[in-house]
Amino acid sequence: MHLSLSDPDGSVTGTQWSWQRSSNRVSWSTISDATSSSYYPTSGDQGRYLRVNVSYNDGEGDNKTERFTWNSAVRAEPSSNTAPYFDSTAAAQRSVPETDPAGYAVGPPVSADDDDDDPLVYSLSGVGNGSFRIDATTGQIRTHAPLDGYPGQAFHLTVNAADPSGARAQRPVTITVQDQPQAPVLTGPRVVHIDERNTEVALFGAYDPDRSALSWSLGGPDEDDLQISTRRELRFQQFPDANAPADANLDNTYEVDVRVSDGSFTAMQRVRITVADLDEFGNVSLSESQPTPGTAVTATLSDPDGDIANLRWEWQRKRSSGEWTPIPRSASNTYIVTRSDSGYSLRAEAVYDDDHGPVKSASSSGGSSTTSTTSNDNGSNSQTISSSRLNTTGGGGGGGGIDGVEGTTLFVANGWSPADVGVAAAFAARTAGAAVIYTEGDRLPAAVRALLDVRTVHLIPIIGGETAVSEAVRQSLAASEPFADIKRITGATGVETSVRAARLALDGTRTGDAVLIVVNGWSPPDIGIAATLAARLPYSAVVYTETAELGAELRQLIADTSPNSILVVGGTAAVSQTVEDQIRAAAPDTGVERINGTSRTHTAQLAAQYLEQHSTPLPANERVVIVASGRSPPDIGVAAALSARTPGALVVYTAPGMLPAETEELLRLVQPRLVRIIGGTNAIPTAVQNEIAALLPSGGRTQRTSGQTRIHTSVNVARGILPRD
User: Fold this and answer.
1) Which of the four, 136, 290, 545, 546, has the lowest number of CB atoms within 10 Å?
2) Both 265 and 333 in a single domain?
């Protein structure tokens, strides 16, 4: 006698079996040593009733019980046992369609007879039995695995029937898999977003279970606008124009049915393609191609986006082997060539707003030689300098920064000193109309001097001592901007420098209103996150600390400002729990919160989410996210400074060569209209930029700001922030 246990609640474990006998089915006695699922009755069981109890555990709990009782008593053992037998020894023939799923019955049962009426147990053997199984009590053969791919194949198996004494009978069974025609399987996207300058839509795939040749075709309301090749490529017949949609209902969403057929069956999938209206590139043309001294050259700007506003001009010149250099006091679209321009090529650059966005630029190709214009990554002849109109309120509108100076402020830091870059970025975030540029330690780069030739700066704070930014650099700044007030902000240590900068940034803030953001001054990623927080939180400043000890300067700042709240950025490896405890002791009435993730990219994500919760976010169609490499301190600093000039912006990081899951999650959540990428393709590869673009909503776009070096990158961003002369 063989029993099996099943339970719909799931897997059964810990089974314990117990067999009992009774002469009247009222009082029962336990059979010793009968503790398995099988039991062979003995002569002592003759004329008595049997029952079995089982206890077990399943997915819903432990110590569950079940019981089974036989309705008839054990019969007397026959004087002799007759083996079971099949009514025929010829092979039983069965067939099954290849499309039948697992568990389907394969013909009628293959059952045996037993003259002693003994219960029989069936089993299956032979090659291919992994594709089939048999019910142990009925002899019903069933499919056990999908048979697709075995059309026409015959499986030769053997059905075994055994009685309790072990006597058995066998019968061969041949199961033939019937070939069933099947439709091809089509794979590919259902929704696609593409740029209006692109004809390629998507690549589709298909396979046919019958291995028939496949043909492709299109249907649907917009089938005439697209085509699909034998290589399974879906593309537009010609470049789509978002400003002149040609789809059936003129909504810039094209709908087609992609079809694949094997001649008998057709698979079809509706695909919706949305065409994004891209930022068209402006063009500047000149009235003269070979001007001579005394000639008035007029520049004209055109841009397909239309609605040109806030147009500003700048003329530049260069020799054949040199770089373009701005010409001072050339702020009109007309320029009169002078003798000093002889031998130079000239070009005009326009900075303007249009219907698609603010602060764009376009340059001409002119003079005596053909010249290239500043281009973004796709080789166009225009480049967006700033992703939004300039924010002149500073730090989320919370005051602070450097007061008492009218005009613009340019913070200068050594681009190879992460601590000074962080102070500059955080300070610029708290100062209205401010930008940050990087310098080399011993000399002022030509790119910075060229910027100062065309931008009037009223205050230049230098961050760091003379070891970081030499006296020679300060003198060069004074020569370039003789009327600017140049200040050096420095301390004996990086911590002291940050505290001095924080006091200036918080000057005029009422006691009890300040927000202090505490960060390890030797952790560039955390510094960048802290500066980004300062850019959005009113009355905030960034200060540095050592890892293990809260310095006296920072203790005194806490005592003097009685801050409203204190944020600690980074884990305990950067800012120890001891330092956090000392902060709490120094400000017992102040809320202290730590922003810390499992990685620098995770911490940046958490900081962005903190800003979402503690400030008023912009509408979805105005959101901007700034992306920098978490491994590039100078790009982190530029991103932080730019975020202060970009209302509602969030800053996130990438990892080397990849888009981290945390950054991807935030982009999916925010759905920004624009993602500003800071740094070249060595810092953030084009593949990562493409991954970002794929996450954006319809009409969303990416723009990269970079330069040949970290200095050029900072200058390019500053050009978009500082007003022209």
Assistant:
1) 290
2) no
